[in-house]
Design a protein that fits this description.
Distance between the termini: 58 Å
Radius of gyration: 27 Å
Number of helices: 9
Bound molecules: dinuclear copper ion
Order of helices and strands: HHHEEEEEEEEEEHHHEEHHH
Number of domains: 3
């Protein structure tokens, strides 16, 4: 018993290390279902460890029996091939079949219990957030009974720590899947259908998620960030998002706004407080406050923003955003203006 309790932590560590190594090869950053930051992901991770432990035990037992059978058949070869007993073979098949049914039933019960536990988590006074998957970005609307309190943003979902959040998902084009591994299980966003899932972050942090359903050429560049922060910080962020976009404060930003409003940008993008009210692309009212550009494709820096505006197809081939032809001074003014929209 003491031996097994000593073995378990090192087994766990080995599996985490191997998975982290594999994960590090595929996705950088803090994006692991093995590192739950909330009760939903915690339950799912417990279920996973249980299933892994059971499957490992089955594998070990099968390997032991295999080794034993190989050894026995060798000995029998040497002892002039005495036939194996039919009765013991039958017994083995019956016991093996019964054990398989038992283990699968245990998996089923654990799975149902996890589903029920997830459903039973407190949801009172939940924050309701509508997440709409687009090719290839996330539209985010905070639902509020007062129309003037509805916040619309993109690709980054701020939430208050320790409070339940309902994610109401949908899609206008193809099936996407919303998944923040540290916080909850996958939820498909299906055209013509509304889905709902719940999450709660118990630790502050920035949790990265990736669209989990192949949705076209740039599926891999469809990242969502959940930023969990204490209530006062969240409220401050919310109120800042509610406010109209900052008006230009100097000649450069004034020129940038002018460039924006006179270009094709306004067809697809909104900047509140201006005439730009396009809805095909993400709102830019507070684009300067976001951590990334193009749904997690690039860190939000002036250089990256300029590169994105000039030739988005080079960064994200297939994206709906067309290239823009403008002179260097206009581009610089436009980038300065957009980055000032905190
Ligand atoms: Cu959206 Cu994959």
């Amino acid at each position: 018993m003491r031996q097994s309790s000593r073995l378990w932590p090192s087994f766990r560590r080995t599996v985490i290390a191997l998975t982290a190594l594999l994960g590090a090869c595929i996705v950088p950053g803090n994006e692991s279902a093995f590192n739950p930051a909330g009760p939903q992901a915690g339950r799912i991770s417990t279920l996973w460890w249980f299933m892994l432990a059971a499957a490992t035990a089955v594998w070990v037992v099968v390997m032991v029996f295999l080794a034993w059978a190989v050894r026995r058949s060798r000995q029998r070869d040497q002892a002039l091939r005495e036939p194996a007993g039919d009765a013991s073979m039958q017994r083995g098949v019956v016991v093996g079949g019964a054990l398989t049914v038992l283990i699968l039933t245990a998996f089923l019960i654990a799975d149902i219990a996890t589903g029920r536990a997830l459903g039973a988590l407190p949801r009172k006074n939940a924050l309701r957030v509508e997440v709409i998957g687009h090719q290839w970005w996330w539209e985010v609307n905070y639902i509020d009974p007062t129309p003037g309190r509805i916040v619309t943003t993109a690709n980054e979902i701020h939430i208050p720590v320790g409070e339940p959040v309902q994610i109401i998902g949908s899609s206008p084009d193809v099936i996407h899947s919303f998944w923040i591994p540290n916080l909850h299980g996958k939820k498909d966003l299906v055209p013509g259908h509304t889905t709902s899932t719940w999450l709660r972050a118990d630790k502050p942090g920035v949790y990265r998620g990736q669209c989990a359903e192949f949705c076209g050429a740039q599926h891999s560049k469809m990242t969502a960030l959940v930023i969990a922060e204490p209530r006062p910080q969240f409220d401050a962020w919310y109120n800042a998002q509610l406010a109209s976009a900052r008006p230009p404060s100097n000649p450069v930003t004034a020129r940038g706004q002018d460039v924006f409003l006179k270009s094709s940008c306004v067809v697809c993008h909104t900047i509140s407080g201006t005439l730009a009210a396009g809805t095909l692309g993400p709102t830019l009212s507070h684009v300067g406050s976001r951590l990334t550009l193009a749904s997690g494709s690039l860190p939000n820096t002036p250089g990256n923003l300029a590169a994105w505006i000039v030739d988005p197809q080079r960064i994200k081939p297939g994206t709906r955003m067309p290239s823009s032809n403008m002179n260097q001074a206009d581009l610089q003014a436009l980038v300065t203006y957009l980055e000032s929209l905190k």
